[in-house]
Amino acid sequence: MSRRSFALVPTPDDLTYVREHAAVPGRAAVVMTMGALHDGHATLIRAARGHVGRDGFVVVTVFVNPLQFGEGEDLDRYPRTLEADLKIAEQAGADAVFAPAADEVYPGGAPQVRISAGPMGERLEGASRPGHFDGMLTVVAKLLHLTRPDVAFFGQKDAQQLALIRRMVRDLNFGVEIVGVPTVREDDGLALSSRNRYLSPQERRTALALSRALFAGRDRHAAQEALRARAREVPATRARAEALSAIGESRAAADAHAVAKAVPGGPSAVRAAARLVLDEAVRHDPPLVLDYLALVDPDDFTEIDDDFTGEAVLAVAAKVGTTRLIDNIPLTFGAAS
């Protein structure tokens, strides 16, 4: 097999054969998907190729995992577009697509031994979709064993999934590096998702409230951090106030101090700004049905307090029509010191 050839492999043995005959000296990377690839997936594949270079090996998995779909979810109608997926994967730089049947991944039926997501897996998405993260971690663990990568790439759009995979790899000593890739958005701000194709034009307009809510929270956070930074630069002393007054800046200094002290905690204001957008979308036609809005610590996905400093995730989940969508953005509190 030549270095730049591309292969569709349906079984683990086929994947081993292709990888061994590729005879690449570099690192191996995997991008796990459930198919219905779009530019978000292509971005992950390009990131994997860039990471391992031309001497590396990039495999994309396409497997609709039945373990992570609950009763009444869209397992049967989940889009399956393998022919188009192969083209996208090859063009983005993959060496192979591993697209196994269910009995290749779960020989003998559903596994009796599974990975437990623990307490983090019972929050937010886990509370809305019981058992989802146990099924996700089980298949990720199996695919890591089957593909044997040095590094695995996952999108940050599924922030709780990414956090749980990192926790599993750390807690269970998987010898693999996990890389998160920023969310890819469409021109109107909607996060790319295979489920976006289910949305009617009217539903899509309502669905834009998810990203708009996140952006409103982000903008409120940025304004607060800027005001706090300015307040730190302007000491609240009489001598300094008199000096500022002489050059006409006393009002700006006073405003900075007042806002920095009056805001009832950065996280509360961020949640409130996002909630305003979502509350308005509830009245749209069709309406947005909110599942959750949360501002959480990415280490355990618990809600953060107003005195929190460090990395956080503002996350939202909602249903529009019959389609359930999720989105999130990262924020940093107390970055300027």
TrEMBL record:
Extract the Gene3D superfamilies matched here: HUPs, Pantoate-beta-alanine ligase, C-terminal domain
- Keyword ATP-binding assigned to the entry: answer is yes
Residues holding beta-alanine: Q68
User: Which residue ranges does UniProt annotate as crossing the membrane?
Assistant: none
Enzyme superclass (EC):
ligase
Q: What is its EC number?
A: 6.3.2.1
Q: Which CDD domains match?
A: PanC
In which compartments does the protein localize? Cytoplasm
| GO molecular function terms noted in the UniProt entry | pantoate-beta-alanine ligase activity
- List the catalytic activities from the record: (R)-pantoate + beta-alanine + ATP = (R)-pantothenate + AMP + diphosphate + H(+)
Q: Which domain of life is it from?
A: Bacteria
Where is (R)-pantoate bound in this sequence? Q68, Q161
Q: Which keywords belong to this entry?
A: ATP-binding, Cytoplasm, Ligase, Nucleotide-binding, Pantothenate biosynthesis
Pathway entry:
Cofactor biosynthesis; (R)-pantothenate biosynthesis; (R)-pantothenate from (R)-pantoate and beta-alanine: step 1/1
Catalytic site residues? H41 (proton donor)
Name the residues that bind ATP.
34-41, 155-158, 184, 192-195
Function text: Catalyzes the condensation of pantoate with beta-alanine in an ATP-dependent reaction via a pantoyl-adenylate intermediate.
Assembly mode: Homodimer.
Q: Further notes on this entry?
A: The reaction proceeds by a bi uni uni bi ping pong mechanism.
NCBIfam families from the UniProt entry: panC
Q: Please state which protein family the record places this protein in.
A: Belongs to the pantothenate synthetase family.
Entries under PANTHER family matching the protein: CYTIDYLATE KINASE/PANTOATE-BETA-ALANINE LIGASE (PTHR21299), PANTOATE--BETA-ALANINE LIGASE (PTHR21299:SF1)
Full protein name: Pantothenate synthetase
Q: Which organism is it from?
A: Streptomyces cinereospinus
Tell me the lineage of the source organism.
Answer: Bacteria, Bacillati, Actinomycetota, Actinomycetes, Kitasatosporales
